[in-house]
Amino acid sequence: MIDRLNHGLRELDFLARLAKATSRRTFLHWSGVTIAVATVGCGDDDDGTGPSGTVSAADSTATVPAMVSAGSAATITVQAKNSAGSNITTGGATVSATVMGDNAAGPIAATDNGNGTYTITYTPANAGTDTVAITLNGTAISGSPFTVTVAAGAVSLGTGDIAVLNYAYALEQLEAAFYVQVVTTPYSGITAEETAILTDIRDHEVIHRDFLKAALAAGAIPDLSVDFTAVDFTSRDSVLQTARTFEDLGVAAYNGAGQLLESADYLLVAGKIVSVEARHAAAIRDLLNPLSADFAGDDVVDPTSGLDRAFTPTQVLTAADPFVVTPIDPSGLPTA
Question: Does this model's pTM top 0.85?
Answer without folding.
Answer: no
